[in-house]
Design brief:
single chain, UDP-N-acetylmuramoyl-L-alanine:D-glutamate ligase, six-stranded parallel β-sheet, 14 helices, elongated
Length: about 325
């Protein structure tokens, strides 16, 4: 039974690691974007839910049962609780493993897109799981406490691994940005439309691409491809000589972020969809959010065009102080 229990735990842990690496990749390994995800209700539910609280309770129970100096009078009760703990854990990990196989058959398992980086991080992240699995089978440790502790701490363990190797990733990131900037400079006649804002970026990009594609050869950034690495990869992998317009969704989580994206893509038209208090925790203040989004307009050339959402008070204030050619929509 113990081998079955450990195997079920291993299956569950493998899926959990793939999910957390998927989330890190989705946020493009940007710690600000990753942490900002947990400002949402959906994000908080990943860390604080009934299942997590149940596992914390079971961990505390396991630690209590591992205490060696209980009075002999309660040995029977301790054995009963230990047996109950085994059956609860088996049932819990059986259901989680069943969900893994169900998701696998339905092809709904959330896992990172396989790149050299994601494969490397997956391999490194699985090492402690495999090591603990072997220790559980052949070692002499507090089995249930170790399983539960590793289970609960999986998000933190994966995040530490990602952040540990991030400095090496930054070197690669800088090389990608440099190559993308050099390639972009070769397309002198390319019209780039930059879109930023606290909301509405993706829908505006999609609507605009659909309309302009009727007359022009249009390239647009893919879903979630709105960071410096995402935009650079789009330029390197997808930009072709036949493209006439490049619609570039731009997202940032700190001052200077949009400016960097503009340095890469060189937009001539800038669209500011709207500004609200989203990402306040990352930017630090509403003033910083406004300034951060306005970097798109500040980066436009003198013959550029700035388009603002006139129904948004922050956008309208920025419209009034903008000197280059501008419009309100």
């Amino acid at each position: 039974m113990f081998f079955s229990l450990f195997t079920l735990w291993f299956i569950r842990e493998t899926k959990a690691i793939l999910f957390w690496l998927y989330l890190w990749q989705l946020k493009e390994y940007h710690i600000g974007r990753f942490l900002d995800h947990f400002q949402t209700e959906k994000g908080r539910q990943l860390l604080l839910n009934k299942l997590v609280f149940l596992k914390i309770f079971l961990l505390l129970l396991s630690l209590a049962l591992s205490y060696d100096n209980w009075p002999i009078q309660v040995d029977y009760l301790i054995d009963l609780l230990l047996l109950s703990l085994i059956f609860i854990l088996f049932g819990l990990y059986f259901l989680e493993s069943f969900k893994v196989f169900k998701d696998f058959l339905e092809k709904t398992i959330k896992k990172p897109v396989w790149t050299k980086k994601s494969l490397f991080l997956t391999s490194i992240s699985l090492i402690p799981v495999i090591a603990l699995f072997l220790v559980l089978l052949f070692g002499n440790i507090d089995t249930f406490s170790a399983m539960l502790a590793f289970d609960i701490l999986t998000p933190a363990i994966v995040s530490v691994i990602v952040l540990f190797f991030q400095p090496f990733a930054v070197l690669g990131r800088n090389q990608i940005i440099k190559k993308a900037s050099e390639k972009r400079a070769q397309f002198q006649n390319l019209l780039v439309i930059g879109i930023t804002g606290s909301y509405g970026k993706t829908s505006t990009k999609e609507f605009l691409a659909t309309i302009l594609s009727e007359r022009f050869k249009v390239l647009k950034t893919a879903e979630h491809q709105n960071s410096e690495v995402g935009i650079s990869q789009c330029i390197l992998n997808d930009l072709k000589p036949e493209h006439e317009i490049f619609i570039c969704e731009m997202g940032a989580y700190n001052r200077g972020g949009i400016k960097l994206l503009c340095d890469i893509a060189k937009p001539k038209i800038g669209i500011l969809t709207g500004i609200n208090e989203q990402h306040m925790a990352i930017f630090g203040s509403q003033k910083n959010i406004v300034k951060g989004k306005y970097e798109l307009i500040e980066s436009l050339p003198e013959d550029g065009l700035a388009i603002f959402n006139g129904d948004n008070e922050y956008c309208f204030e920025l419209y009034k102080r903008t000197l280059i050619k501008k419009r309100v929509s």
